[in-house]
């Protein structure tokens, strides 16, 4: 495996010197782009969009055609794993994802097994291979999965939740059942990410979207522990190249030190913590990714540029180990031209920082 022509993203994750601060955006392939809407119409449904390697490749490449981004991320959905476990994923217009068979009964939880990704998630792996071929080694491809706890939230609640009542009741009332779900899911995610790596992913990211809803003690036991288990089981090198890993816990700013000791190469940060403070807390142990508030992209281009510069200044000019990103996924209502202002600012200003530091 040879590094891409533009390998600044990989170098930043490994804390190697970069030409500038690389940037990609969570949910960069998605509903804010009009071309995505056209592809979604042709696909007929969101699930078909995800399950067609050709459509997934097309959507993955769309933002790279518009912007000078430094990485592509596989277009898929975190809920493909529980769907492969037989929970019956479906999408309702205006209500988001739901499961036909949520995990409510002990018998169903005891019967839960980790799917073989080469059998049940082959369409994702075929998509990874197709995207790598289409990228032609121009920029790296990121593979990803949801964290066991985040997936468990959907698996137990049956969909999204505002209070995680069923999940938290199980945590405190029947922790044995929650650990059973998380253990099986951790095995599934480990196999799934490794299969993505074998298919061509050059970095992987674990999205712990709902870990921040837990108490400090519960986060350690029910979220971080299982991410550590995944990280310890990941393929670390392929064909002589390191495969870096990123962990992102939304709302996890209180636990940065513990997260930095998890075995990952980089931490994703939401916008609630100053990136300079985060860097002081974790030192050189891991790289950092983030962390512009996605709503900044609704402001004027000059304001977007100012906010981006604040983050670059806070991290520290001339220092390695920073991947610029949003603090969460880009909003579907974001004006596409505002992303241009952000990407151009990050590249231009970080080059100036390196020249003057």
Structural description of this entry:
This protein is an alpha/beta fold and 357 residues long. The chain has one domain (8-356): TIM Barrel (Alpha-Beta Barrel), CATH 3.20.20. It has 16 helices and eleven strands. The chain has helices at residues 8-13, 34-43, 46-51, 53-66, 80-87, 106-110, 117-120, 122-135, 148-157, 165-173, 175-199, 216-233, 256-260, 275-282, 301-315, 336-356, and strands at residues 72-73, 89-92, 96-99, 141-146, 203-208, 237-238, 241-242, 245-249, 266-268, 287-289, 322-323. The strands form three sheets. A seven-stranded parallel beta sheet has the order 1-4-5-8-9-10-11. The protein is globular, with a radius of gyration of 19 Å. The two termini are 33 Å apart. The model has no long low-confidence stretch (mean pLDDT 96).
SSE blueprint:
Layout: H1 8-13, H2 34-43, H3 46-51, H4 53-66, E1 72-73, H5 80-87, E2 89-92, E3 96-99, H6 106-110, H7 117-120, H8 122-135, E4 141-146, H9 148-157, H10 165-173, H11 175-199, E5 203-208, H12 216-233, E6 237-238, E7 241-242, E8 245-249, H13 256-260, E9 266-268, H14 275-282, E10 287-289, H15 301-315, E11 322-323, H16 336-356
Parallel strand pairs: 1-4, 4-5, 5-8, 8-9, 9-10, 10-11
Antiparallel strand pairs: 2-3, 6-7
Helix pairs in contact: 2-4, 4-8, 9-11, 10-11, 11-12, 14-15, 15-16
């Amino acid at each position: 495996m040879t590094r891409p022509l533009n390998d600044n993203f990989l170098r930043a994750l490994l804390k190697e010197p970069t030409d500038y601060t690389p940037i990609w955006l969570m949910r960069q392939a998605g509903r804010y782009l009009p071309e995505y809407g056209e592809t979604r119409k042709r696909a007929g449904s969101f699930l078909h969009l995800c399950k067609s390697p050709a459509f997934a490749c097309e959507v993955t490449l769309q933002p790279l055609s518009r912007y000078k981004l430094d990485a592509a991320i596989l277009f898929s959905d975190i809920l493909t794993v529980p769907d492969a476990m037989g929970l019956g994923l479906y999408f309702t217009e205006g209500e988001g994802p739901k499961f036909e068979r949520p995990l409510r009964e002990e018998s169903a939880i005891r019967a839960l097994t980790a799917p073989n990704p080469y059998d049940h998630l082959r369409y994702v792996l075929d998509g990874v291979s197709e995207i790598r071929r289409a990228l032609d080694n121009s920029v790296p491809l990121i593979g990803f999965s949801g964290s066991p706890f985040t997936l468990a939230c959907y698996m137990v609640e049956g969909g999204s939740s505002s209070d995680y009542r069923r999940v938290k009741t199980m945590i405190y009332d029947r922790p044995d059942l929650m650990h059973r779900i998380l253990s099986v899911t951790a095995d599934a995610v480990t196999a799934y990410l490794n299969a993505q790596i074998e298919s061509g992913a050059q970095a992987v990211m674990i999205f712990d979207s709902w870990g921040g809803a837990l108490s400090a003690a519960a986060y350690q036991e029910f979220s971080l522990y299982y991410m550590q288990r995944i990280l310890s089981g990941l393929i670390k090198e392929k064909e002589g190249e390191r495969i870096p890993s990123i962990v992102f816990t939304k709302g996890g700013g209180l636990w940065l030190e513990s997260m930095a000791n998890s075995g990952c190469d980089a931490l994703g940060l939401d916008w609630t913590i100053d990136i300079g403070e985060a860097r002081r807390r974790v030192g050189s142990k891991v790289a950092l990714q983030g962390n512009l508030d996605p709503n900044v992209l609704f402001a004027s281009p000059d304001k977007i540029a100012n906010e981006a510069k604040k983050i670059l200044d806070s991290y520290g000019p001339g220092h390695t180990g920073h991947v610029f990103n949003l603090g969460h996924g880009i909003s579907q209502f974001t004006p596409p031209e505002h992303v241009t202002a952000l990407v151009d600012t990050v590249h231009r200003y970080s080059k100036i920082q390196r020249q003057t530091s």
